[in-house]
């Protein structure tokens, strides 16, 4: 090595990290684009926080809280149904508010914000989710009924010990019910707000992670963030379990415990906790810059190398929507590119049927466990939010490690999705076999027109004591295995969806995927499966204005109809997974883009290249620079 080259290398390698000159011919970013913080919260201290590790940590934490809001809603569902007198079908309509806003935000906001400061937009979505939490708690404060009125509305049929079994059951007091729809409208509005925040978090948050991380590290880091999100249901269901142990009017002793059908827990309490937490975290997330400094440095070095060598190659990492012009016509062109991408189309078609089939287990799993195995709402939420979801989170995390370690191909990932879909469908069919023979509400109550009579001689207050723990344990084992398998499939499916499109289309492709999945899965599935659940009801609560919530279900009919219907949708999705596998042969999961750990190596290569070119043609090198 000659003296001048050695001196140049030593000067470059021993110097502090270079401050990048953001020449518009080299980089698409200004100095402001890499600044961390906002308003008065700027400076060297905040700039140290602009790291991928902190982003992954906060991204996973926020995802955990966002998912906990969904699980908390469904964990308190049966209590809310009794509190404001709604059916499962009405719950499906309420959740449609979230689906509606999710579609709109996924289609338009994800495209509009794709070349802007994504973390700031995500923070606005977090604030929207926080407001949703506070709105969901409002029905208790605005329309709360007293203890006596609650018992009259939700427990008229329990006033006498044998009231359920008599044809001359006491009629409800019509003066206490006027068919109040106001609480339902409030919940619908809260659901609408949550959809906006959820859409911004997923569409922009995942693409920001992919834009600012080396591609070979994306599988593990995205799985790590997903692991945090999968812990959300654990938090949500545990919080629901805790809150439902307290009576809805905190400090009041109703004279009966939570095993009594008249018990209504403090379903509103958890919403205040979740909303306050989201409001506290949002400003920290908004502090992240448009692009992380190390990423901007890496891109600038890569573009400098390309210009010096006379090439014009652009890696996926470099194309992060620097100067993309936002317009409706450009959005249509982007959508046209997506719908003509066969791998993308088949992958989304498979997701539609897969999510449709798995929707009842996302939404009604706690309720299903309550009905099938006579667990209390608190017990069902603890089981749903702890044991089973830990296996789901482990599946995602292990899959991310294996994918990164083995550097699997796109076809291998798509093939694994086919296998896991088949196993998932088999597991769902297995659920139908694990019922409690000691519990058959259809035999207890026979419905003849408007009269309901009992098929046993006497009745006691409260639920009949049954032992359903053995079939429940078998159900729990199969469910945990299914959650683990589904977690591995989720990690693989995410990478396929991200890599089968052009880098410039990542944000809008994720938004478009979520929009069509919402329209054809998340929107109709709760209504369809809510109707299936309602059809298995054998004893409806009655109010003067309308039919109230269901008190008893035919467990066997519910077990068969819900599980086999769900399995059929998953099997159809498997057929489309095969199409995804066939067309997943022309795109890469990984690339050879250099990373931030190689910054010194990059500088050494750049200096070697420049010195070599000076020897060959000093004039040409000067013109290039």
Features:
mainly alpha, Growth Hormone, Chain: A, two-stranded antiparallel sheet, 625 residues, disordered N terminus, 4 strands, disordered C terminus, two-stranded antiparallel ribbon, 2 domains, 66% helix
Structural features, described:
The protein is mostly helical and 625 residues long. The chain folds into 2 domains: 31-145 and 182-294, Up-down Bundle (Growth Hormone, Chain: A); 331-442 and 466-588, Up-down Bundle (Growth Hormone, Chain: A). Helices cover 66% and strands 3% of the residues. The protein contains 24 helices and 4 strands. α1 packs antiparallel against α23, α9 packs antiparallel against α16 and α16 (377-406) runs parallel beside α19. Mean pLDDT is 76; it is low at 1-27, 154-165, 446-455 and 593-625.
The chain-level structural class is mainly alpha
CATH third-tier fold name of the largest domain? Growth Hormone, Chain: A
CATH architecture of the largest domain: Up-down Bundle
Assign the CATH superfamily of the largest domain: MFS general substrate transporter like domains
- Distance between termini? 24 Å
- Integer count of domains: 2
Helix content: 55-70%
For the record, what CATH class of the largest domain applies?
Mainly Alpha
DSSP summary, beta strand count: 4
Query: Compute the gyration radius: what is it?
Result: 28 Å
Protein name: Solute carrier organic anion transporter family member
GO biological process, one term: sodium-independent organic anion transport
GO molecular function, one term: sodium-independent organic anion transmembrane transporter activity
Transmembrane segments: 54-73, 93-113, 120-143, 185-209, 230-248, 268-288, 344-363, 383-403, 415-434, 472-496, 508-533, 564-583
């Amino acid at each position: 090595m000659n003296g001048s080259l050695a001196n140049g290398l030593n000067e470059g390698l021993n110097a502090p990290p270079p401050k990048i000159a953001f020449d518009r011919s080299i980089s698409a970013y200004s100095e402001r684009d890499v600044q961390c913080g906002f308003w008065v919260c700027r400076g060297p201290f905040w700039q140290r926080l602009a790291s991928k590790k902190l982003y992954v940590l906060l991204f996973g934490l926020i995802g955990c809280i966002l998912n906990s809001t969904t699980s908390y809603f469904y964990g308190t569902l049966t209590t809310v149904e009794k509190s404001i007198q709604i059916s499962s079908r009405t719950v499906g309509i309420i959740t449609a508010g979230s689906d509606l806003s999710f579609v709109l935000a996924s289609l338009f906001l994800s495209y509009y914000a794709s070349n802007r400061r994504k973390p700031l937009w995500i923070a606005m979505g977090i604030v929207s989710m926080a407001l949703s939490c506070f709105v969901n708690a409002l029905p208790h404060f605005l329309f709360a009924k007293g203890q006596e009125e609650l018992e009259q509305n939700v427990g008229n049929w329990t006033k006498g010990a044998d009231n359920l079994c008599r044809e001359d059951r006491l009629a409800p007091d019509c003066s206490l019910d006027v068919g109040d729809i106001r609480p339902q409208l409030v919940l619908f509005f809260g659901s609408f707000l949550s959809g906006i925040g959820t859409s911004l978090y997923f569409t922009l948050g995942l693409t920001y992670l992919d834009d600012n991380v080396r591609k070979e590290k994306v599988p593990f880091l995205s799985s790590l963030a997903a692991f945090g999100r999968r812990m959300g249901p654990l938090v949500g269901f545990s919080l629901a379990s805790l809150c439902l142990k307290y009576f809805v009017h905190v400090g009041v002793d109703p004279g009966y415990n939570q095993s009594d059908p008249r018990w209504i827990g403090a379903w509103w309490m958890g919403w205040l906790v979740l909303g306050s937490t989201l409001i506290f975290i949002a400003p920290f997330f908004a502090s992240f810059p448009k692009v992380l400094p190390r990423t901007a440095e890496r891109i600038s070095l890569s573009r400098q190398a390309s210009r010096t060598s006379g090439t014009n190659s652009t890696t996926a990492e470099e194309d992060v929507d620097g100067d993309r012009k936002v317009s409706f016509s450009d959005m249509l062109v982007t959508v046209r590119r997506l719908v003509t991408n066969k791998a993308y189309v088949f992958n989304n078609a498979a997701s539609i049927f897969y999510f449709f089939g798995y929707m009842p287990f996302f939404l009604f799993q706690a309720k299903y466990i309550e009905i099938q195995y006579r667990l209390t709402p608190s017990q069902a939420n603890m089981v749903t939010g702890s044991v089973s979801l830990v296996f789901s989170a482990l599946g995602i995390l292990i899959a991310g490690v294996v994918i990164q370690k083995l550097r699997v191909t796109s076809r291998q990932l798509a093939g694994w999705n086919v296998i896991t879909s088949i196993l998932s469908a088999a597991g769902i069919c297995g659920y139908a076999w694990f019922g409690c023979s000691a519990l058959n509400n259809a035999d207890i109550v026979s419905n003849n027109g408007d009269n309901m009579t009992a098929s046993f001689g006497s009745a006691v207050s409260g639920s009949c004591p049954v032992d359903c723990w053995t079939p429940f344990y078998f159900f729990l084992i199969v469910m945990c295995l299914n959650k683990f398998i589904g977690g591995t499939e989720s990690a693989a499916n995410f990478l396929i969806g991200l890599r089968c499109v052009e880098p410039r289309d990542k944000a809008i492709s994720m938004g478009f995927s979520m929009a069509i999945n919402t329209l054809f899965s998340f929107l109709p599935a709760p209504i369809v499966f809510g109707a299936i659940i309602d059809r298995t009801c054998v004893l409806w609560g009655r109010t003067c204005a309308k039919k109230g919530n269901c008190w008893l279900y035919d467990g066997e009919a519910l077990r068969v109809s819900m599980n086999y219907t769900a399995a059929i949708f998953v099997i159809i999705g498997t057929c489309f997974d095969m199409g995804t596998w066939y067309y997943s042969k022309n795109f890469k999961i990984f690339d050879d883009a250099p990373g931030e750990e190689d910054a010194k190596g990059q500088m050494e290569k750049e200096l070697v290249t420049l010195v070599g070119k000076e020897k060959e043609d000093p004039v040409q090198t000067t013109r290039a620079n």
